[in-house]
Amino acid sequence: MTTAATTAGLDPATLADVLRLAGSTGLDRIQEQIRRTGGCSDPIRLQGSTVIRDRKTGHVLHSYSTDTEPGGVLRVACGNRRASRCPACAWTYAGDTYHLIRAGLVGDPAKGTPPTVRDHPRVFATLTAPSFGPVHNRPGNRPCRCGARHAEDAPELGTPLDPGTYDYAGAVLWNNHASELWRYFTIYLRREIAKRAGLTQKAAREESRVSFGKVAEYQKRGAVHFHAVIRFDGPEGPDDPPPTWATLDLLTDSIRAAAVRVAVDVPPAGDQPARTLRWGTQLDVRTIRAFGDGEEITEQAVASYVAKYATKAAETTGTVDRRIGNKEALTLLGIPEHPARLIAACLDLHPLYPDRKLRDWAHMLGFRGHFSTKSRRYSTTLGALRQTRADYRAAQQREALGLPDPDDSEATTLTVAHWAYAGHGYTPGESWLAANVRRDIEHNREISREALAELRQEGEHDHE
Question: NCBIfam families given for it (predicted)?
Fold first, then answer.
C-alpha cells in the first residue's frame, strides 16, 4: 500500500499512522468502508448491531455487529453538501440536484414529472442584488472604472473601488433579507400573472400553477443572487397542461413586473437609517429550450449550472465555511479585506437587529436562507432521491445475503437494530487513505466522461 513516492511529504504523525494501518489486520476492511462512503472527508462513526430473524421460527437469518469492525465502528458518509467540507458528499448532492432540476425540465415519470412537461413555458431567471458601491469588474471589452483591464482571475475583482464609501451595512442586510425578497417575489409573480391574464388571483390559481426550482450563488462582491427555473403548469402541476393564456411572453413579463414591485422595509436602529431593500436592476430572463438557439439555453446547461452552485457557499468569496465569533478571528483566519469587512459589518449590526441573527450568519455574509429550494410540484425531492439510492443498496445487500424482500407479502422477517453515534472523522492515516480513494474515484469518473464524449462524437459522425 505505501511507497516512498506515495507517502512523500507526509508529516511525521500522518506517516506513522499510515504505517500503523499498513501493518494492521483491518486495513482491507477500513479501505472498503472508505470506498463505500465515496471517500467521504468526515464520516459519521456508528456503533451498534442489526439482527434479522424469521418472524415465525425465530431463526437468525443474518446478524451484523460493529464489534467485528476495525476500531469497533462503522463509517458512513457525512452527507454534507458543501464542497469545501466534503468533496465526495458534495458530488452526490450536486448529482441529486442535477436530476431534480432536469426532471422538471425534460420529464421523468419515476421522479414525478411526465415528458410532456417539456412543452410547458419555462424560463431561467437570475435575480441579483442592487449596487452598494462601485467595484472592480470586467465590463465587456471596456476597461474597469479604475482604468485597468483585469484578468479573469484578478483578486481585486468584486472588491470596492473605494472601501471607505462602500455600503457594507446595506450589503449584509440585503443578504440577510434575500429569502424574504424571494418570498415576496413569488407572491407578486402570481398577482402579475393574474393581472395580465385578466383574471382574479383565485381564478388564475384554479387554472394554472407556477412551479420553480432555484439555487443561491454568491457574486464576487459577496452579494447573493438567485438562479431559478420558473415553469407554467396546469392547476394539478406538471401532469396538467397549462391554459392557453399561460404563454412564455406572459410569464416573462410577469417576472419582470414582479421583481420591480418587491420591497422589504428595514426599520432604523442605532446609527443605521431606515432602508427599503429591493432587487437589483440586472434581471436576466432567458427561455429554456431542448436545444440552444441564440440567447436561449438548453435544459442540460440549466440543470448543470444549478447543480454546480448547489454545493458552494460564501467561501467562494474568500470567507470560511464555519461560524466566526469575533473580529480577532478575521486576522487569524487570513480572510481578505473585502469579505472581512462584510463579516465585521454583520458582527457590528447584530446588537442593532438581534432577531436577524447576523452574528450567527456572519461567515455567510449575512445570508441565512436555504441554498437550494423548489416549489412542491416542481419535480421530485432530494429526500426521495436519497431514499431511492438507499433502497437500491439495501436490495443489493439482501440479494448478496440471500434475504427475502421485505415488501414481499410472503416475507416474515423481523429486523432488530440498535445504533449509537460514536463520533466523526478519521485518524491522520485514515484521512490520507480517504484522500487517495477520492482521487481515484474522481480520476475514474473523468476517464468515463472522456470515453462517453468520444462515443457521442462517433455517433454524430455515423449519422453524418
Answer: rep_init_RepSA (NF041486)
